[in-house]
Amino acid sequence: MMLITEHLNIALQGQSILKHIDLMIEPGAIVSILGPNGAGKSTLMKSLSGDIPDGLHQVTLEGRKLKEYSVPELAKYRAVMPQSVQLDFPFLVSEVIEMSLLTAVSHYERAAYVERALAMFDVSHLKDRNYLTLSGGEQQRVQLARVIAQITHKADDRNRYLFLDECTSSLDLAHQHQVFEVVTEVVKTHRIAAIMVLHDLNLASQYSGRLVLMNQGEIVSQGTVDEVLQEERITDVYGYPVKVTPHPKGWPMVIPA
């Protein structure tokens, strides 16, 4: 079983956004969706995660169309961190984490759940802070803790899917790599696929098992990192000349030509 779409087509306000998208995503890998601005990356992620109505009957999750799942049932299979998370009320950081609990638990279990989630991204010291007073990077790390806690809590044998849209955009270098190290460990130790929208080609190259390169609403290339990150292809898609050279530790590194 896996996450599958065949010939996915999405139009918004009469404009074609995604065209003939074919994807099969199995748990056990980080899959990064790449492409220039306006390529359709976020729309693809929203379609795969069930956030766009037209995608509900075109995407199959574990053998069932998304439209066949109730919202609470779907939350057991996938967790989503969109590009922007807007909270307008002064929730405590601990309360933001508690929002991801799918079942009632005791006070002790709830406290342990919050501590475990925040510890993943070194934000335990923010537990009692007003979420609205945090920096952009701190908010991003709290939201990452929330969705990863949701998808790993009381793990069973079901396959699960973690959707992260530009989840490192507000983070410094060290915290960017921390995020990918945590996600890599989660994917390795649970039956989870991490589907990530990224702009940073080199982060994608270093940590991904598979890449999906998009342009103008279509998939230009998908496959391993080496298969997708070809100089001519990246230059053509992004409209800017690049060189691809091996990093000392083995993965391809994309640099301006």
Give the CA-based shape: globular
Q: Mind describing the biggest β-sheet?
A: 6 strands, mixed
Mean pLDDT: 93
The N- to C-terminal Cα distance equals 42 Å
Q: What's the architecture, going by CATH? A: 3-Layer(aba) Sandwich
The total number of structural domains is 1
CATH topology: Rossmann fold
Query: Structural class of the helix and strand makeup?
Result: alpha/beta
Quote the beta fraction: 25-35%
Instruction: Give the CATH H-level superfamily.
Output: P-loop containing nucleotide triphosphate hydrolases
Walk me through what this model shows.
- This protein is of the alpha/beta class and 257 residues long.
- It contains nine helices and twelve strands.
- The protein has a six-stranded mixed beta sheet with strand order 6-7-8-3-9-10, with helices on both faces. It has a four-stranded antiparallel beta sheet with strand order 2-1-4-5, with helices on one face. A two-stranded antiparallel sheet has the order 11-12.
How would you summarize the topology of this molecule?
Elements: E1 3-12, E2 15-25, E3 30-34, H1 41-49, E4 59-61, E5 64-65, H2 71-75, E6 78-81, H3 93-98, H4 107-119, H5 136-152, E7 160-165, H6 173-189, E8 192-197, H7 201-207, E9 210-215, E10 218-223, H8 225-228, H9 231-238, E11 242-246, E12 252-256
Parallel strand pairs: 3-8, 3-9, 6-7, 7-8
Antiparallel strand pairs: 1-2, 1-4, 4-5, 9-10, 11-12
Helix pairs in contact: 4-5
GO molecular function, one term: ATP hydrolysis activity
Protein name: Heme ABC transporter ATP-binding protein
Keywords: ATP-binding, Nucleotide-binding, Translocase, Transport
